[in-house]
Amino acid sequence: xxWRDLWSTMIGLVKFIVSNESTLIKKMNVFTVxxxxxxxxxxxxxxxxxxxxxxxxxxxxxxELVRCQDVFDNLYSMALRYSMSGGENKDTSMKxxxxxxxIRAITSHFQPRIEAWL
Length: 118
Known about the structure:
About 85% of the residues lie in helices and about 0% in strands. The chain is mainly alpha-helical. Helix 5 (about 70-85) runs antiparallel to helix 6.
C-alpha cells in the first residue's frame, strides 16, 4: 500500500477543514473529524514500526508531517482558540490540541535541523 497517499489525504482533509472553518463549524463539530485524523497519525507515529513495511515508510511519514507543518500549526491554533472560548466545541477542541503533541514535537525537532542544513 502507498501510505503516502493516506497521509496526504488526511492532511488535505485537515487543510480543507481549517480553510473552511467558519462555514463548517456552523454545521458540525469539525473537531471530531480532526481528532480522528490526529489519532490515526498518532497510531502511525507510535506503532508504525510494527506494521509499516520499511523504515523508509516511517521516514516518509515524518517527511509529510514536517513538510505540512503549517497545516498542523493552523489546526492547533484553531483548536486552541475554540478550547479557550468556552463554547459547545470546547471539550473536543481541547482534545485536538492535546492529540497534536506528538506531531508538534516531531516538527519542532526536525524543522530547525532542516533549516540549519539548508
